[in-house]
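Table S5 (text form). Sequence records supplied for joint modeling of the two-component complex.
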Amino acid sequence: MTVAAAAQPTSSATMFSPKWIAEHLSRWPLHIAVIGLTAAWMVPTIGLLVSSFRPFSGQATSGWWTAFANPTTFTISNYTQVLSAGTTNLGQAFFNSFMIAVPATVLPVTIGAFAAYAFAWMKFPGRNGLFLALVGLLAVPLQLTFIPVLSFYVQHLHWTTNNLEATGIPGLPWVPLWLAHAGYGLPFSIYLLANFFRALPSDLFESAEIDGAGTLTVFFRIVLPLSVPALASLVIFQFLWVWNDLLVALIYVGGTPSVAPLTVNLAGLTTSLGQGSNLLTSAAFFSMIVPLIVFLSLQRYFVRGILAGSVKG
Amino acid sequence: MDFSLLLQDIPTLLVVILGVPAVLAAYIVGGEYLVRRLPDKNRPQVRPWIWVGPALFLVACFLLIPAILTAIQSLEGNNVDVLDPSTWGPNFVGFKNFARQFADFPTGGAWIAIRNNVIFWLIFYTLFTLVFGLVLAVLFDRVKYEQFVKSLIFMPMAISSVALGLIWDFMYEYQPPGEPQTGTMNALVTTFLHHDPVSWLQDQWPGETFNLLNNLALIGAATWGITGFAMVILSAALKGIPGELLEAARVDGAGEITVFRRVILPLMMPTIVVVGTTLVIFALKAFDVVYVMTSGNYNTDVLAYRMYNQLYLASNSGGASAVAIILLVAVVPVLIFNLRQFRAVEARR
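The corresponding structure-token record, covering 662 residues in total, follows.
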């Protein structure tokens, strides 16, 4: 958003002339509609935010909007309580979410980039058929895969959370979840990157090959640096998708506090604390911190990723 | 928060953050090294498989093969080990699992979930989101602070559906009539409509067999979260319409409503269709909001939740597989449509 452009007057009429005033007045309904709709859209979030700073007695007996009449009652005790209480495990869950989301982003993006490079610039039998199959798999419900994968993990490999934790190898308890997220994220990752790689000018590759550059050099020195925008969108997309995922985590790691991510923990708290508990408000906001920071700082790339045609879910 | 706990976990952090990329880099560098050892003429035959290999392997292991096995499992009893073909024959039950899901129309088996998914969610979620998205895109296009209001509408896209469910739990809070209402929706209803407070998530108005209100409450919460997605894509399509076209229509005396109906809407139709199909897929896969807000109670069940329920609470893997297959069948028309679109785009390249 450029400030300079926003400051320019819309009208060609001289400022404060009758015509100028008429033009501006006629636009008032538009501004009221835009600002009104946006404000209405924010009410649910603001309501929860205000509630999270209200003491339990206030939350239980009056609406969040009444708090402004008596601002002295605002308190951060909901936050200190929910973070210090040993039973909520929010700190551990926060750490777990990172341990899950970082590799579950790195794996499908990197492996997807390798494959997308081959789909875009190498010739091999079955290339188009395989790509079409990937497009078809984009929309397949994940529900279709849970039972066999779970049975393979648990009954055949004995990869239960307990067994994996017992090995003492750091990170190992999340490996089943990383691999599953990688498999689920790959069709979208390959689809998005292959389309981007294909649009790169072919002269680049030819001249690099004439210079004797190997496939690896071309990939790491030419393709990847030129694809930073596409890679950034994909990384943000996949990271937020995994960070916000409830279903896949619920299926593969369940509610064990030492491995469960924030979403599973938070959903568990709604049951253990009871819907409407004052601690839930602060816990919910705690869980939003990372997505909101990622979103606010990298919004441009996130939107670009969405525009690149997402049918993932 | 207990930060000492996080400090203890630093080795885990390092292994994970450095280890995973290291393994991937080692794979591709090692693979190339081996390819270079091959005779010249074999290299182009082997190299692509090194690059696509891991991706194809993971997709086959986590999507393709499990999907086929689930189809088999849906025809088997619960004692089957679907990964062991020798147990398939003895446990074969035919379409029994499906028969159970389709029993006792209209309220038994999976019928409530099917109705909620393919009627309520599919129609209202898709329609509300498209209408809101389109209205917001068109209105915002005309103001200078467009980017700012757009990011505010878009923000719910970044948060998890679990947090979204909690936000709306508080919106829909219910206190008995006469008590001060703590939920925003009920405060509005009692203050402005002078109506008794509504128990949004439990009230099955208009009746026991057509439970609309609480389903709409769930759909409304989900719509609030996804509208930003539709708005952003529709807004990009709107900006793609040449300004001269709109000017020409206005010069010819067309009002803003006519311009919208006769020029903007037809030109945006392809994008609306693409967004619509994506939303249909989201509608059919709805899970998180239902899980957090109602646990499928009061006739708000959906297929994805029913599948989870059958698997974990009922330990009925045959039934869960059957529900998953029903979900697939519901998605297949959209899937075919997507493939057709993709082929049409490819043909134009």
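Note: The CA atoms of residues 37 and 107 of chain B lie 66 Å apart.
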